[in-house]
Amino acid sequence: MARNKIALIGSGQIGGTLAHLAGLKELGDIVLFDIAEGMPQGKALDLAESSPVDGFDSGLSGTNTYEGIEGADVVIVTAGVPRKPGMSRDDLLEINLKVMEQVGAGIKKYAPDAFVICITNPLDAMVWALQKFSGLPANKVVGMAGVLDSARFRYFLAEEFNVSVEDVTAFVLGGHGDTMVPLTRYSTVAGVPLTDLVKMGWLTAERLEEIVQRTRDGGAEIVGLLKTGSAFYAPAASAIQMAESYLKDKKRVLPCAAHLDGQYGQKDMYVGVPTVIGANGIERIIEIDLNSDEKAMFDKSVASVNGLVDACKKIQPALA
Ligand code: APR
């Protein structure tokens, strides 16, 4: 059986890390695409030269033309501009919307059967625009945010409790940004909800709120430290988990920015919700009951995403 083909649109910090992880996990042959000449070819060659050491068989190549992504099974999009200190994800909107238009056209022409994972920020608006520009079915176009946000939450909690990250689960809803909604009653240590851990004296409600806020600000914390770019290891690992669930039909339950068509009372929008990812893409959106506080936070997050989508429609009226 031929190997799967994974196309990475954007071969910068995240793109390079995606290629490395996809190679190490032998997910398939990997094509790195970028507008910068030589860079995707250079990264592909460097990574290919690591394959004898690590013992993986993945074809790696770089390209500057969309023909190179022809027939891809998975496309992961990081093309665009990342945040610099002081910039919000939303500041990136106008530049990255134009990039999504080009990328969407390239995918439509050369990889219309792919499962497409968007990472470019501002995430929820960009994945919405990418789905429109590409014309691919909505269940095959998804945004990576929730896996990363919940990984950050899990890491901070594991550090706080001095327990393994493996035993901490986290549940994060809503847009990728300052309005994301970490659900503490569905986040657990070995099945025990955080709300119970507060009662058990493992941490105070105030400390939990601090950790929740640190999770919301997780991306900005990294931007502030790196100064020249934004996070790339954890975003890449998160998108690879989603790609693997699709390629291996694992049916993982993962929080993703998915297209809502009535779920959670929303129509034709992308926002972070729990999903099942399998061979048919987003196979199910899990609708959970929200209490009134959670609903208020979720609605605020939805309003913020809708504001960005409206801004996209103003910039590119064809999207309206
Ligand atoms: N087509 C293809 N690639 C493009 C285009 C385009 N129109 N415009 C820019 N790029 C490429 C750049 O040349 C660069 O190599 O996208 C790559 C982006 O890489 P980095 O600048 O290293 O950014 P990265 O850290 O990988 O983040 C990418 O993900 O998390 C988000 O906010 C982040 O939107 C940003 C994206």
UniProtKB/TrEMBL annotation:
Keyword Signal: no
Keyword DNA damage part of the UniProt annotation: no
EC number: 1.1.1.37
UniProtKB keywords: NAD, Oxidoreductase, Tricarboxylic acid cycle
Top-level class of the enzyme under EC nomenclature: oxidoreductase
Active-site residues, Swiss-Prot/TrEMBL: 176
Transmembrane parts of this sequence: none
Residue ranges constituting the Lactate/malate dehydrogenase N-terminal domain according to the UniProt record: 5-143
Domain Lactate/malate dehydrogenase C-terminal: 148-304
The organism's place on the tree of life at top rank: Bacteria
Coiled coil: none
Chain positions recorded as substrate binding sites: 83, 89, 121, 152
Alphabetical GO biological process terms: lactate metabolic process; tricarboxylic acid cycle
Any one GO molecular function term: L-lactate dehydrogenase (NAD+) activity
NCBIfam families found in the cross-reference section: MalateDH_bact, PRK06223.1
Family listed: Belongs to the LDH/MDH superfamily. MDH type 3 family.
Protein name as catalogued: Malate dehydrogenase
Organism of origin: Pseudovibrio denitrificans
